[in-house]
Amino acid sequence: MSTLTLLVVLLTMAVCLLVLAALGYLAYRHPRTATPLMVMGAFAAALAGTLAIVAAL
Fold first, then answer.
1. Any domain includes 27
2. How many separate domains does the chain show?
3. Digits of tens for pLDDT over the chain (57 positions)?
4. What does pTM read for this prediction?
């Protein structure tokens, strides 16, 4: 992999982790919307799938 590709993957991971934390906080502050672990787990699964596709390219 080139340096640019690694940098893009690193920045994508950082942004996605921030979004994951924001979703967890939002679900924690408003518990009737969803349980925090289910929201974060679903987002983490989507993130892992996306990164697997990117890594396969």
1. no
2. 1
3. 688 888 888 888 888 888 888 888 888 888 777 777 787 888 888 888 887 877 777
4. 0.65
